[in-house]
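Hey forum,

I'm writing up a methods section and want to include a predicted complex as supplementary material. The small molecule is S-(P-nitrobenzyl)glutathione. I've pasted the protein sequence and the SMILES. Can someone with a working setup run it? I'll credit the forum in the acknowledgements.
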Amino acid sequence: MTITITAFERSPDRGNGLARDMRVRWALEEVGQSYDVRLLSFEAMKEPAHKALHPFGQIPTYEEGSLALFESGAIVFHIAERHAGLLPEDANGRAGVIAWMFAALNTVEPPIFDRSLVMILERDQPWYEHRLRALDTLIRKRLDDLSAFLGDADWLGGAFSAADILMVTVLRRLQTSGILEAYPSLAAYIARAEARPAYQRAFAAQRAVFNAAPPT
Ligand SMILES: N[C@@H](CCC(=O)N[C@@H](CSCc1ccc([N+](=O)[O-])cc1)C(=O)NCC(=O)O)C(=O)O
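Reply by user p_vandermeer:
Happy to help. Structure tokens for the complex are below, copy them as they are.
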């Protein structure tokens, strides 16, 4: 059955794979599942037709037959449940990977995403420097604990899993911040993931969309 996801018609990240369709594309490539993409403008996302799929008028969404999903983490989990290769077979190992999926989105991503928003929206506010320093301190706490947990391991749950897809797409947002320079093991973790053929196919596909988009 055909799978269709939605993505930005022209991503603000200029095809750098930071928009959240990237993690869905990557999961589909990892399990060898082909998919179609419906590209949306910011305006089209807010139209009733799309809001019937995504209550908040965002991307990505995932459609397969009568199923319509939103939330990139939930979509990646759905893909991992329906195809082998992204979740351990044993129940405890699977539960541990699911915990790391939640940790990526609920514990590590929020201060990193907030940092992006502050840098875009609050740069000329009087509290900017203080807020940025506070977020950087919190981010470093999260990266201290994440790098301590990962240690010398290649992946969070033993073998590569859906948790690594979510965590790496969260950490990539820091690649231009300088913060990762103090965390060589996390930089190596990201590079290991980016070297995966499935990642490279997903990245190339979303980059091609940006390159083909008409200039604004
Ligand atoms: N929690 C949801 C959040 C989805 C979301 O934030 N979607 C964004 C695109 S990915 C977030 C994003 C946007 C831009 C960049 N960038 O670097 O330019 C990176 C990531 C969106 O549709 N925004 C349009 C809107 O809200 O009206 C999920 O994980 O699916």
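Some notes you might quote in the supplement: The CA atoms of residues 104 and 167 lie 5 Å apart. The two ends are 35 Å apart (CA to CA).
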